[in-house]
Amino acid sequence: MGHVNNAHYLKWVQEAVIDHWRSLAPAEAVAAHLWVALKHEITYRRPTFLGDEVIATVLLEKVQGARAFYETVIRRGEEVLAEVKSSWCCIDAETLRPARLAQDVIARFFPVAATEGA
Question: How far does the chain reach from its first CA to its final CA, in angstroms?
């Protein structure tokens, strides 16, 4: 039908979330932690067609224990194509076991909340 396969949406979400992590976390935290997806809930708003240029915007909603909860919005220009709620587990890169992030690392993702208490 000329539209992209559902797997493309998951690829875009994974790339956006990992890029978000790498852009805000300190290098030592990036090296020490991996992320695995636990759940994706996709609401499709409009079809995405082969050749469309899309942008995925991520928002980290909360971190709870070793879990992070993201919302990703995929757009073509101003048009919302899909909204994705996803949960991820932080994994220690050495032990491959779930790992909690240090508070100073988490604070980098919530700058407004960190400055409100100051």
Answer: 54
Q: Identify whether the C-beta of residue 84 lies closer than 8 Å to the C-beta of residue 117.
A: no
For 24-65, how does the pLDDT look when each residue is reduced to its tens digit (9 = 90+)?
999 999 999 999 999 999 999 999 998 999 999 999 999 999
Q: Left if phi > 0, otherwise alpha if psi is -120 to 50, otherwise beta: which for 77?
A: left
For Cα atoms 93, 96, 98, give the angle at the middle one, nearest 5 degrees.
100
Which residue in 99, 93, 95, 114 sits closest to 67, CA to CA?
A: 99
- Cβ atoms 3, 49 nearer than 8 A: yes
Has residue 113 got a pLDDT over 70?
A: no
pLDDT digits (tens, 9 = 90+) for 85-98: 999 999 999 999 99
